[in-house]
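Final report, Chapter 2: Outcomes

The project's central promise was a pipeline that accepts a single protein chain and returns its three-dimensional structure in a standardized token representation, suitable for archiving and comparison. That pipeline is now operational. To close this chapter, we reproduce one record exactly as it appears in the project archive, with the input sequence first and the structure output second.
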Amino acid sequence: MFFFLLARFIISPTFTTNIPKIDGVIEPFYQSCPPASDFVQFIPFSGKKPLDSTNVYIIYNRKNLYVFFQCFTSDSEKVDAKICPRDDWEGDHVWIIFDTNKDKTTAYEFCVNAAGVQRDGIIYSDGRNIDLGWDGVWYSAVKITEYGYNVELKIPFKTMRFIRENNEWGVNILRYISCKNEYDCWAPITRNEGVRVSKCGTLKGIFPGESGLHLELYPSGILRYEDGFIPRVGGGY
């Protein structure tokens, strides 16, 4: 039983030469790997079977990690797609955390709600603290479907720091179902402990081709008056 449990919470992402279009529409190559689908509740009833099912596919190429969520609902009209400020939690949403150093303490968090609003941050102290001031460079799309909704993520490896020689990361995948006030997770956690990096499963066999600091550059300009207008140009990130 012990070895069964270890094997259950392992995801082996599939390497692909395809380049997904980030539009929330599932493409056949996502389904080349078995999905993470054995979710359980942690709120309100820890360990119970979720009322709605979720499939999550993870693939990657040399530059990017791709995550595709299929969120099934008993009634697609009940999808709570709520517009809210960035880094908020409102409405139906899904999120994934990556312990890229597998230190069981820190992790990156990427969250998208059913309206497409993003939230990201860095988790510290095994989930006891989170820095929402961190804004990574990543991309997402949402599509409402006849069975619920899809969320698709593209996360450049340059967005995260990791040890290149380490081909196993910690990972957990979570979903909130608004109309049922239910939180589900892939690697089990309990209501009392909350999200814990140390309880992550394993992303096994990940071989990123790029690492480093991913910045978005943008131009800036200043108009100053000293006995006449003096323009200044520059840039930022």
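Archive annotation: The mean pLDDT is 87.
This record, like all others produced under the grant, will remain available to the consortium after the project formally closes.
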